[in-house]
Design a protein that fits this description.
Length: about 200
Amino acid sequence: MSHYFTGDNTEHEYREIKFNYRDRVYRFRTDRGVFSRDRIDYGSSVLIDAVVHDTSISEGGVFVDMGAGYGPIGTVLGDVLGAKPIMVEVNSDALMLCRGNAEQNDVEAEVMDRVEYDAMEFAEPPALYVTNPPFRAGKPVVLEMIEDAHRKLGSGGSFYMVVQKKQGMPSYRKAVEKLFGNSEIVVKDKGYHVLKGVKMQKPDV
């Protein structure tokens, strides 16, 4: 797939932000040019809470956080669920921040770029795949992420994606329905919708 952005050559402007969730304060280092550098964006916080309350991933399991940015979704979910995130990011600056933020918050994670991820062979298929997609990169990029989730998830695995109605939620829900054979809106909050698809087991031939 074509990468929707990499890094830039502008001067770094690091800052630390905090995110309070379930009586823990998470700290994240951000930088100029990364998405939502001043605070955890509302869509990501809605997605985190929806997954925490809805998922059935086993403790110690592995999940994918696609388009991880500087790592808030994968880091918080990894900590709360007791699972190991595989955080995938194509922006080189965000990738560096993501590694540091997982470590700073004591979350064991694998952080990699998309090329490394595409070449990766999972010992067992992940049971969970989450994303707050880069909608500005265009619909083909977002649709490819949905397709990747369907390819990578194991039988019974769950895909979660946060999207606003104005960003094309109905059409993305149709894409989830077409690939997974099912779709559900598990949360609606201030215009944000968390879509869910469950990968169904293939019937025996």
